[in-house]
Structure formats: structure tokens, C-alpha cells
Design a protein that fits this description.
about 30% helix; Alpha-Beta Plaits; 4-stranded antiparallel sheet; alpha+beta
Length: about 100
């Protein structure tokens, strides 16, 4: 099944100035997503350019597994981001270029 998890910063002003522990968590977050991408689980991930939220579209066997994947994201379990998971279906798609 395909899922989407959305993450939002928990602290006001996060986008303007990250605290050192937030920077560390976000570096670990990106490393986590890159690993899941290499493993073929993550299909698309990225932040809004205004830093309001980020999304991850990924495959998991069921909703409980999807919740665990999100919960294991360092940005989430270190309390830098608040997350929510939703089942997701692609209805329309256009091939995209990175960037």
C-alpha cells in the first residue's frame, strides 16, 4: 500500500533559525529518508519552500507499519516535527525532474 506522511515543525520560527539540536535531527531525518529511498520504500519526499511542512510518499504493508516508519523518523521521535500518516493513492502524475 502507498502512504503519505506529513510533518510540520513544532516550534514557531523553526524555518528562520534552527537550534543546533534541530539541525542535527534534520540531518538525521534526511539520512533516514535517503536510506528508505535506496531501499525502494520512499518514492517522493521533500519540504515546502516556505518550510510550512514536508511530505513523504512511501510504500508499507499496512497502516501500522506506515506509522512505525514515520515514528522512526529522527525529526519526529526527537520532537522537532509533528507527523501524521494517511493512506494515499496517486490519481494523476506527470513525470517530474528533480529540483
Amino acid at each position: 500500500m502507498r502512504f503519505l506522511y506529513l510533518i510540520r515543525p513544532v516550534r514557531e520560527g523553526f524555518a528562520e533559525v534552527m537550534l543546533p539540536e534541530e539541525e542535527t535531527a534534520m540531518t538525521e531525518h534526511f539520512d533516514y529518508l535517503k536510506r528508505l529511498h535506496r531501499e525502494g520504500m520512499v518514492q517522493l519526499a521533500g519540504p515546502c519552500l516556505d518550510a510550512a511542512f514536508g511530505i513523504v510518499i512511501f510504500e508499507a504493508p499496512d497502516i501500522e507499519s506506515a506509522r512505525k516508519i514515520m515514528a522512526n523518523d529522527p525529526a519526529v521521535y526527537k520532537g522537532v516535527m509533528q507527523g501524521e500518516v494517511h493512506p494515499y493513492r496517486v490519481s494523476l502524475v506527470t513525470p517530474m525532474t528533480a529540483g
